[in-house]
Automatic annotation (TrEMBL):
Keyword tags: Isomerase, Lyase, tRNA processing
One Gene Ontology molecular-function label: tRNA pseudouridine(55) synthase activity
Function of the molecule: Responsible for synthesis of pseudouridine from uracil-55 in the psi GC loop of transfer RNAs.
Domain Pseudouridine synthase II N-terminal: 33-180
Catalyzed chemical reaction(s): uridine(55) in tRNA = pseudouridine(55) in tRNA
InterPro entries xrefs: PsdUridine_synth_cat_dom_sf, PsdUridine_synth_N, PUA-like_sf, PUA_sf, tRNA_psdUridine_synth_TruB, tRNA_sdUridine_synth_fam1_C, TruB_C
Gene that encodes the chain: truB
Record: active site: D48 (nucleophile)
Family per similarity comment: Belongs to the pseudouridine synthase TruB family. Type 1 subfamily.
Official protein name in the record: tRNA pseudouridine synthase B
Enzyme class: isomerase
Keyword Isomerase attributed: yes
Keyword Lipid metabolism: no
Organism for this UniProt entry: Aquitalea magnusonii
CDD domains per UniProt: PseudoU_synth_EcTruB, PUA_TruB_bacterial
Amino acid sequence: MSKPRSNRRQIDGVLLIDKPYDISSNNALQKARWLLNAAKAGHTGVLDPLATGLLPMCLGEATKFSSYLLDADKGYRATVRFGAATSTGDIEGEVVRECPIAFDEARLLQVMQQFVGEISQVPPMYSALKHQGKPLYEYAREGIEIAREPRNITIHALQLVSFDGVEAVIDVLCSKGTYIRTLAEDIAIALDCAAHLTGLRRTTTGGFQLSEAHTLADVEALDMAGREALLLPVDVLVQHFPAHTLDAASVARFIHGQAVRFVGECARMTRFRVYSDVDAEFLGLAELRDDDMLHPIRLLAVKQTAC
């Protein structure tokens, strides 16, 4: 699938992919990169191979701003099967404990609400977190248990979509770093039961929705012009910051890393999306400091004609 590096091209933007089942996030990224013949690409948050759904991919200059999506809230639709726990917390693992299901929908809803808000969560052993440079899942496969420190996460919302007495479909809106497998297991423990995931689909990342995403097959079916048309502009990654425009003289200094005078009313926001007032080109992010100057903190490689 790989192309010679010399043949890859500089292409900038964000591609929203609906990751399929049973491939890694990195494999999905490399396939998309190959389809666009892009020189540089990165994704914005790993999905397990068994998980599907929204996987925003940053190409070219967009990779400079990928951290803003890595830190963004995420939404998931989880399918949870009660009555059995597995070694991995999902359907890939072996069943390690079974128990009767002695609760109804009303009790499930009651317990779910106990997990809304800021909670403490211990990361699972089957995760990519590292201990002494080695992923935890490698220790887990060797039968070694590593002590993990609990982490504070935030569950913004939990909604029960359906419950048939055994399997529940739950929509989760959460902060970064949340492990949905662990959340399902913890809810089950609070119900004096056990559970594991049978399905997981990411539905939102930051302001992006799964309905906006494209399958790899759909992207592959297009010609190159059609594929490029799917790319969103780089500045969609930082739309949560206010915009500020610069005149031509200020642009010339700004794109070379120099601070420029802030003109206008300050909304007491420290960071701004910065654009040229000549052609509305996105130049990068700046920080407004106490000296009333906009200091560049992340710049795009812009054309010198911008000034």
